[in-house]
Amino acid sequence: MELVIATRNKGKLREIRALLKGTRIRVLSLDDFPGCPDVIEDGKTFRENALKKARAVAGYTGKTALADDSGLSVDALDGAPGVYSARFSGPGADDLKNNRKLLRMMKDAPDSERGAEFVCVMALAGPPGAGIKEKTVKGVVRGRITREMRGPRGFGYDPLFYYSPKGMTFAEMGPEEKNKVSHRARALTKIKDIINRMQLAHP
Ligand code: IMP
Fold first, then answer.
1. What mean pLDDT comes out for the span 87-112?
2. For position 8, which CATH number holds?
3. How many structural domains are present in the chain?
4. CA–CA separation, 202 vs 25, rounded Å?
5. Which range, of 10-19, 41-50, 166-175, averages the lowest pLDDT?
6. Residue 163: which domain range?
7. pLDDT computed for residue 151 by the predictor
8. Are 127 and 64 in contact (CB under 8 A)?
9. Separation of 156 CA from ligand 1 center, angstroms?
10. C-alpha to C-alpha distance for 172 and 166, rounded to whole angstroms
11. Residue 179 or 158, more confident
């Protein structure tokens, strides 16, 4: 079975390829379909965005597609930045500006109210008429928002995300350590089971 990963992000692609190693799935990426148009992520939920991307890529390529959408949800901010994680600080947003904005908004939050979670939703969709049922899965990892940025690694909100089982922020952990427990890894493990079952039905 062929599976197109609906991302242009090299890091995500590497993670997904590593997890699907050892299966009979032939992993393709958008590099194999350079004309595939970008999808506007205007959904209100991670699930809506992931499904929109998976459907668009399956429709364009004529193959089963896997897409994801992810972000940070902070309890004290009613789930913000959520689907706006990448553009939290407005036009020209980057990781540093987003992190600074989050720190400002959380300035007065006491330790007991600094809970947060990274969420990743993965969606699978087949091309029209292929009889492949759409599926979505969710991976979540809980942590706490620190009071300053800590650690040089990772990306996005990693320097502010304290993961207590390791006593470090995600940006202080090595990539292998992070990839064992991350929201993306958790969603991927679930989707892998679904893909394996699907392969039996649509070899
Ligand atoms: P997307 O899934 O590529 O749209 O990611 C949305 C945004 O969520 C990213 O730009 C980051 O700001 C944030 N994000 C998602 N996953 C992570 C992560 O593993 N670490 C840090 N930030 C993340």
1. 97
2. 3.90.950.10
3. 1
4. 11
5. 10-19
6. 2-201
7. 97
8. yes
9. 6
10. 10
11. 158
Does 172 contact ligand 1 (Cβ within 6 A)? no
Q: Atom 8 of ligand 1 has which residue's CA nearest to it?
A: 71
Mean pLDDT of all residues belonging to the chain: 93
Active site residues: 69
85 lines ligand 1 (CB under 6 A): yes
Whole-number pLDDT of residue 201: 67
Which tens digit of pLDDT belongs to each residue from 29-83?
Answer: 999 999 999 999 999 999 999 999 999 999 999 999 999 999 999 999 999 999 9
* CB neighbour burial string for 138-155, b if at least 16 within 10 angstroms, e if fewer: ebebebbbbeebbbebbe
| Atom from ligand 1 closest to the CA of residue 178 | 19
Handedness of CA 53, 139, 171, 179 (dihedral sign): negative
Q: Which of 157, 160, 169, 177 to mutate to test the pocket of ligand 1 (most atoms within 8 A of CB)?
A: 157
**130-147: per-residue pLDDT in tens?**
888 899 999 999 999 999
Q: How far is the CA of 88 from the centre of ligand 1 (A)?
A: 11
State the distance from the centre of ligand 1 to the C-alpha of 118, rounded, in angstroms. 8
CA-closest residue to ligand 1 atom 15:
71
Q: What angle do CA 5, 156, 161 make, to 5 degrees?
A: 115
**Bridge partners of residue 169, in order along the sequence:** 162
- Taking the centre of ligand 1 as the mean of its atom positions, its distance from the CA of residue 201, in whole angstroms, is 33
